[in-house]
Amino acid sequence: MAAPQGTELVWELVRATVALFIIVDPVGTVPFFELLTSGMDRERRSTIVRRAVLVGTALLLLFAAAGNLLLELFGISLQSFLVGGGMLLVLLAIRIILHGGEGWGSGHSTGVFPLAFPLLVGPGAITTTMISIRSLGIPLMVIPVAVVMALTWAVLEHSELFTRFLGKDGADAVARVMAVFMTAIGVEYVVRGARELIYG
Length: 200
Fold this sequence. Notes:
globular; mainly alpha
């Protein structure tokens, strides 16, 4: 596939950034972050945010650079990964729609689990990154990843502002609304992967 140029390139970058932002969903993650870090002082919370963003960025760049190699190593086609990742994304989105932030635990996050993975960078974000690689290539994919993770850091670092502005119920509503978009993206991945598996 030829690399996009000019306006097409800009559109692909915007599309990849928006799709990844919707999947990572830092605003929708705020209620979970508040729950996971309840009782912690600001310095500890900032440390967790930095660690989560760094680990999340590293995971996305790892799969951007070596995702296809990892799939080949395990004998998994990209189409099958699309279907599986899409299904997991739909299930996660449905869970958020039905239950919000319940059941994630509190006060025990190190920033890696469950914040960096799977809340910020889960199957959906990994799948989105690997799909965008097909049109952008590895060097350009760094741009959407960097933009989205920088925004994620800003949102979580100042999560109390979002909580104060939206309120607990408002933040939970945002998470559920974004989950609807996650469901649609997950279904799109399943359909695209199944179509390519069937028709080649």
